[in-house]
Amino acid sequence: MADTRKASRFIVPVAVAGVAAATIGLVPALAAAGDPDLPDITAQQLIEKIAASDTQTLSGTFRISTDLGLPLGGLADLGGLAGGGSSTADPTEKLTELVTGTHTLRVAADGPDRQKLTLLDGSDEYSLIHNGDDVWAYDSKSKEVFHEKAPEGADAAAEKPSKELPTTPKELADEVLKAAGDTTSITVDGTAKVAGRDAYQLVIKPKQSGSTVESVKIAVDAASGTPLKFTLSSVEGGKPVVDAGFTKVDFGRPAASVFDFKVPEGAKVTEGAAEKGAKGEKLPEDFEKDFEKGFGDLAGLGDFGKGGGLNVIGEGWTAIAKLDSGAPAPKTDEAPKEIQGLLDSFGDKVTGPFGSGTVFKTKLVNALLTDDGKVYVGAVTQDALVDAANAGK
User: Fold this and answer.
1) Strand ranges inside the chain, DSSP E
2) How sure is the predictor about 174, in pLDDT bands with cuts at 50, 70 and 90?
3) Within a domain: residue 138?
4) Bridge-partner residues for 376, per DSSP?
């Protein structure tokens, strides 16, 4: 069971965080020609099937589309202001490209110790490889390499399951359905062909009104129980917020050579923070503090957020986090021009009994920043945020 969890740490982040062609697979479950005829299965049985999946080896092609409804030009300007990292190959920066647009990836996994992800952008490639004790990343466009040691003790920690956690697929399914409670509908809604394989469609929907989430759909391989596709749709309609899935998949063991990496001749190698420390290189003592202060000053937010604590209003899909900063909100007209343009491009001015403020919007998460320094944020509609602010005035 421990090995299954460790393999899932690779498969699930690639499928979800990684994020296909927008028309493949998981559209609303209208009976379509070619949908496989599979035995009936309940939602609980399908959740049990997912939990029991022991997939540890696979290779294939994965396509990801994301549409958060963000102003891309403004985000590019903000990225330029914030500054880049020390290496274009650093995965913490490179993989943020997946939050918008459509991308194709090759993926491979051989248990908890070997995984590889290659991001294909035209003629350029970006590869992230975990092979035993090493993690390598290579950007062919810049010819830069990023390297660090895999975290020690991670596998050992994964092998110590808590006594409070479910220990069988049925127990896990029971817990999932119990947690869903009165706020969530979980159903099996038809079948589909994904990457040439027969799959069931598990559909998760909010029962509450006011959420920005229309549905979450997961295509589950009928034979192995492995999730093949993930689609998150917004009540706004249009393209899914996240649509990620395999277009080709093979559950056989990849060749060991797939995970080999040799630094290309002439490539620049940057060591990660852990590796620098191991070699005795001095890291900036107050790097995190200085970064936060510098970026806060840049945005005019230096003293914002130092006030009261965080409260949660409501529950389930319509939960809203409220933060009282204790200080008036910064004025956007005092921010740098690039940031001002970004804020104006996806912010709406709102008023009500609470006073006035600005709602910053995406297709999934919205946030209300009131002029007196309160913040309301959640995967809820603009109206729900304003109602919460009015109730808490």
Assistant:
1) 57-66, 101-110, 114-121, 124-131, 134-139, 144-149, 184-194, 197-206, 213-221, 227-234, 242-250, 268-271, 310-313, 320-324, 347-352, 355-360, 366-370, 374-378
2) confident
3) yes
4) 322, 368
Does 298 or 62 have the greater pLDDT score? 62
Q: Of 382, 364, 74, which is closest to residue 240 (Cα–Cα)?
A: 364
User: Are 196 and 154 in a shared domain?
Assistant: yes
The 3-state DSSP class for residue 127 equals: strand
Q: The tokens of 45 are what?
A: 């049985």
Residue with tokens 């810049």: 142
Give the count of domains, the chain.
Answer: 2
Q: Are residues 354 and 266 in the same domain?
A: no
Q: Is residue 131 part of a domain?
A: yes
Provide the CA 149 distance to its chain's centre, in angstroms: 24
- Residue scoring higher pLDDT (357 or 159): 357
User: 89: domain range?
Assistant: 2-270
Asked if residue 58 belongs to a domain, the reply is: yes
**Quick one: which of 375, 367, 210, 213 has its CA closest to 305?**
375
On whether both 111 and 179 belong to a single domain, the answer is: yes
Least confident of 81-85, 131-135, 307-311, 382-386: 81-85
Express each pLDDT in 213-248 by its tens digit.
999 999 999 999 999 999 999 999 999 999 999 999
**Whole-angstrom Cα distance, residue 259 to residue 264?**
15
Residues 26 and 155 in one domain: yes
Q: Which residues pair with 380 in a beta bridge?
A: 211
- pLDDT higher for 118 or 344? 118
Sheet holding 347-352, edge to edge: 310-313, 320-324, 374-378, 366-370, 355-360, 347-352
Q: Inform me whether the pLDDT recorded for 30 exceeds 50.
A: no
DSSP-derived secondary structure for 195-235: TTEEEEEEEEEE-STTBSEEEEEEEEETTT--EEEEEEEET
Residue 348 lies in a domain: yes
pLDDT value at residue 329: 66
> How would residue 166 be classed by pLDDT, with cut points 50, 70 and 90?
low
